[in-house]
Amino acid sequence: MLKYKPEGDLVTKPPALHPDPSKTLIGQHGIRLVPTTKDHFHGLFASVCGPENDDLWTYMPSGPHRTVEAFSATLTARMEDDEWLLYTIFPTSSFIPSRVSSSQIIAAVKAPTSAIAPMPLGIICLINFSPANLSIEIGHVLYAKSLQRTPASTEATYMLLRYAFEELGYARVVWKANSWNVPSRRAAARLGFMEEGTFRKHLVVKGVRRDSVWFSCIDDEWFLQGRGSVKAGLEGWLEKSNFDEKGIQIRKLEDIRNSLTEGGRA
């Protein structure tokens, strides 16, 4: 009889599922996550490319792109990767953009649906699927400036976290950031991801060395009841009552997450 016994918690869950490339995810803060198709390329190029958007590409593995052809080639390569699913973020009539005047916000909210062009707001992806290991990653997050620092930008990540944990059966969702990318690292911590450590000299990107800081959220933290619950914290923060008429938060996400009670109330 073998005396060998692997150490660690026994895993009884079945392998997770691959994301459904035909499934659209719909949020409550004016966005839809639609699996990317080539029909989205020109709209995305207009939203996230051009000299005025060069700063968006500082930490991306490619870009900035000067032509729609180059941009399309990059997206096509990602779409052909079996471990990537790209989502185009589209606004609905209730979306309130950032970096616009109050009068523009009011006009956008009051405008009829047909008057609001369905211009994409960016891309967010599920990548590096490992169903057998119950692990998946949220990455290649590229938000147009009109989406940044809005409730919808947080909701996009929440929607993928909920989808991964509750519908696909993953136990771990990864977030990686270039060590120089302080905004991404702050975003991960704010959303509830835990920092795990740094892979030094992990990659060479655009001719320069990249150290990668790893973060994760695991199912225990997602489904936790009470203080520190990632799911309950995000859902509490995303409540309509947590925002004023201009879409400005009333309570910070971290404060809500850290004040949760066993009943899930903040």
Automatic annotation (TrEMBL):
One of its GO terms (molecular function) is protein-N-terminal-alanine acetyltransferase activity. This is Related to GNAT family acetyltransferase. It comes from the Eukaryota. The lineage of its organism: Eukaryota, Fungi, Dikarya, Ascomycota, Pezizomycotina. Residues 32-193 form the N-acetyltransferase domain. SUPFAM superfamilies: Acyl-CoA N-acyltransferases (Nat). InterPro entries: Acyl_CoA_acyltransferase, GNAT_dom, Ribosomal_N-acetyltransferase. It holds the Pfam family Acetyltransf_3. Keywords: Transferase.
